Amino acid sequence: MLQSSWLIPLFPLLSFILLLILRKSKSESTAWIGVLLTGISLVLSVGVWLAVWQGDFIKVEGTWFQIGERAITMGYEVNPLNALMLVIVSLVSFLVHLYSKGYMHGDERFPVFFAYLGLFSFAMLGLVLSPNLLQLYMFWELVGLGSFLLIGFYYFKPEAKAAAKKAFVMTRIGDVGLFIGMVLLFWQVGSFEYDEIFASVKNGDISSGMLTLTALCIFVGAIGKSGQLPLHTWLPDAMEGPTPVSALIHAATMVAAGVYLVAAMYPLFQASETALTVVAVVGGVTAIFAASIGLMQKDIKRVLAYSTVSQLGYMMLALGASGYVAGIFHLTTHAFFKALLFLAAGSVIHAVHTQNIEEMGGLWKKLRVTGPLFLIGALAISGVPLLSGFFSKDEILASTYADGKYGLFWLAVVAAFMTAFYMFRLFFLVFTGKPRGDQSGVHESPGVMTLPMIVLGVLAVVAGYLNTTWFGTFLSDYLARGPVELPHAEHHGPGWIPIVATAASLLGIALAYLIYRRGALSRDWMTRSLPGLSDVIYNKWYVDEGYDATFVKGTKGLSKLGILFDKYVVDGLVAAVVSGVQGLSKIGSRLQNGQVQSYGTFAIFGIVILLLIVALTGGYFS
Amino acid sequence: MSSIPLAAYLMLALILFCIGLFGALTKRNAVIVLISIELMLNAVNINLVAFAKYSINPGLTGQIFSLFTITVAAAEAAVGLAILIALYRNRQTVNVDEMDTMKR
């Protein structure tokens, strides 16, 4: 089983190639190619995962090329962490393929969409299987390309085009950091291999300053991909893409690649206390920052996007607080419930043809399947007990507390409260109350769309039981078999933490209920009581505006300076050379006027000058 | 005879040469140009004769050489005039300015 794990990414690649060939096809049954091939990938991934569960690992490598004495290798590796990622990625990819069959119905470039999905799945699975940083980096960029193509799928919409470019550029900033970190590591270790890097980290071959620097550079890459502060602005804009894409790329898989990267390089981070603290602080601040923006967004997908940013912040916080298992656990559960929420949101959008939650309302009765599934997702992400989000969030809080990061702990609790509030604000506004828009043609989505949601709904409920204190810590036992030495096997905080977390989330739900369902509190009491703050939050803390004022304007100013420099200095130099040569040649051509007498005059002058020189120097230049 | 120094002859030759040169380079009429060239040749002849008489070992070489020069100059003048007449027949002008076929 494990020997064939290299086949897993190749099926989506095959799907990509086949669908590109068939891209002109009008038949929507082309979608089945993608569904079938990712289905095979899924089956293989599950097989590999089961084998790994039983304790088999594999690492196969061959030399790709040789630089001096250093061999650059290529290959594949399966360990507990990436086997888990394989399953998550191929499962979500498969479900999204299935869902898109219904969602993209009637689109002109139907096969192209599935081709791009295939390309992305290939890249993501390849990224996960990579045994060295160089290979990871190549797939990392390919994943970015897939994301770019899919965000810009509706390329005729200027917003989608801008969003695609923004996503590409913003993540590229992070990629440069990753690249620098990678090169530094290669310089220090002489290899891109994870194993060799970890070995030399363990032996203390790298100075501690360099360790921190490389870890932080790699973390910059993770910041870019996972939409952490301050490079998060591309992720909400990426919602311009079709909703299944948001579910696959911008909720479950690609944005989790940053978290995966930190987890995969974890021994490096563990060796540097500073790096871990930075990871935790960035994660914690992002969690609350994005959650606060999510409170006031009006676009259903953007609320979910900010929620994704916030949850990714949670994962980073967990990793930074030595909660390796907690981070991976939350990655897993989040992939399921956030993909579910996005697919449900897509189903809503599919039904009402708007993304503005102000124009929805009262959809519970009309969307009999989507509604309850959305509710499950919302309950799971809010951390209501017994659903998956509760367990993973609780573990993150516990490990943060156990690590002694009390400030970040309370930040995370507040973020959990906000999460519950904005999710249920969304739920009550969309599904309850009176319709606030035209809902004449609203009907439930077809079976190909509801089925993936049901699967994800079930997983969103049960995935939490992978790792509980009650039934067994399967996930941490499983991950402990991997190459990463877990920080502390037991890091359960005090028993009051789950109670606090539950209280925070129930309080958030209750507040949302009071405001948006019962109307007991006026909807704008916060806006009225804190006008300044709510303005800032509504405008997303003016981050985009800030970037516009500094980096965009700065770059434009610089380029204007460059234009001026080019126009006056470079072009001026060229013009000076040109006119100099032209002037010289004009003088020269004036000499050649065909008049014997002027030739004679010049000859005489020449002789006079020569004679003068001879006379002055005393002959023969002695 | 010997009261006239060499410098006087040389100065005369120089002045004559310069007048000839000036005429040759500035006059537009081809005939005058030819005459100016003769002036320059004669300046050279004066030089030859003067050096023949006043040099460290005086002799007749310079004077005989100037005779040759006069002969050659006469021949040259004849050829020059012939060319000039041929040119005049062709171009209906003796103006040196208009004789710029080297450029065309």
TrEMBL record, chain A:
Protein family (similarity comment): Belongs to the CPA3 antiporters (TC 2.A.63) subunit A family.
Subcellular locations according to the entry: Cell membrane; Membrane
InterPro entries: NADHpl_OxRdtase_5_subgr, ND/Mrp_TM, NU5C-like, Proton_antipo_N
Entry keywords, A to Z: Membrane, Transmembrane, Transmembrane helix, Ubiquinone
Domain NADH:quinone oxidoreductase/Mrp antiporter transmembrane: 130-419
Transmembrane segment boundaries: 6-22, 29-52, 83-100, 112-130, 136-156, 168-186, 206-224, 245-269, 275-296, 303-329, 335-352, 373-392, 407-431, 451-475, 495-516, 599-621
Protein name stated in the entry: NADH:ubiquinone oxidoreductase subunit L
Xref: Gene3D superfamilies: 1.20.5.2700
Domain NADH-Ubiquinone oxidoreductase (complex I) chain 5 N-terminal: 64-114
Source species: Fictibacillus phosphorivorans
Transferase in keyword set: no
Keyword flag Flavoprotein: no
One GO process term, biological-process aspect: electron transport coupled proton transport
Main location: membrane
GO CC terms: plasma membrane
NCBIfam families reported for this sequence: NDH_I_L, PRK06590.1
GO molecular function, one term: NADH dehydrogenase (ubiquinone) activity
Membrane topology, as annotated: Multi-pass membrane protein
Automatic annotation (TrEMBL), chain B:
Sorted UniProt keywords: Cell membrane, Membrane, NAD, Quinone, Translocase, Transmembrane, Transmembrane helix, Transport
Domain of life: Bacteria
InterPro entries from the UniProt entry: NADH_UbQ_OxRdtase_chain4L/K, NUOK/Mnh_C1-like
GO biological process entries: ATP synthesis coupled electron transport
Reactions that this protein is recorded to catalyse: a quinone + NADH + 5 H(+)(in) = a quinol + NAD(+) + 4 H(+)(out)
Residues that span the membrane, as ranges: 6-25, 32-52, 64-88
This protein's record includes keyword Signal: no
Major place of residence: membrane
Membrane topology, as annotated: Multi-pass membrane protein
GO molecular function: NADH dehydrogenase (quinone) (non-electrogenic) activity; quinone binding
Assigned EC number: 7.1.1.-
Keyword Transport: yes
Signal peptide: none
UniProt-annotated location(s): Cell membrane; Membrane
Gene3D superfamilies xref list: 1.10.287.3510
GO terms under cellular component: NADH dehydrogenase complex; plasma membrane
Annotated PANTHER family: NADH-UBIQUINONE OXIDOREDUCTASE CHAIN 4L (PTHR11434:SF16), NADH-UBIQUINONE OXIDOREDUCTASE SUBUNIT ND4L (PTHR11434)
NCBIfam families tied to this protein: PRK05715.1-2, PRK05715.1-3, PRK05715.1-4, PRK05715.1-5
Subunit structure: NDH-1 is composed of 14 different subunits. Subunits NuoA, H, J, K, L, M, N constitute the membrane sector of the complex.
Function according to Swiss-Prot or TrEMBL: NDH-1 shuttles electrons from NADH, via FMN and iron-sulfur (Fe-S) centers, to quinones in the respiratory chain. The immediate electron acceptor for the enzyme in this species is believed to be a menaquinone. Couples the redox reaction to proton translocation (for every two electrons transferred, four hydrogen ions are translocated across the cytoplasmic membrane), and thus conserves the redox energy in a proton gradient.
Protein family (similarity comment): Belongs to the complex I subunit 4L family.
Protein name, per record: NADH-quinone oxidoreductase subunit K
Organism expressing this protein natively: Fictibacillus phosphorivorans
Gene name tied to this protein: nuoK
